[in-house]
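To make the argument concrete, we let one protein speak, a sequence paired with a row of structure tokens, as a model reads it:
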Amino acid sequence: MAPELAFLEFDLLKVKGKTEATRVFALLGDNALKQSKEFITLAERHGEFLARFRARDWDAAEALSRECEKLNGSRLNRLYALYRERIDYFRMNPPPPQWDGTAEALSK
């Protein structure tokens, strides 16, 4: 609803009591940021990161998370650190076959 602004998808989240996941986006800036070469590159790499994470390609997702951190000047370090925690967990506890990358919030 605001195509002129710089957004990134952050997560696919299912909240407690719901059956469908919701895509969560973050507003990072205005149209000037959206048009910048730096943001365009970040958005492309971030999209690749999410795709690799959701495809269970843990090694590629982890490498892309670190690349995205550098591209973003570390403003999203907490987000990528959270995803690396998930990756570490899933390496030891693989998600079920029907998993689509959705994170589940255990409380509202």
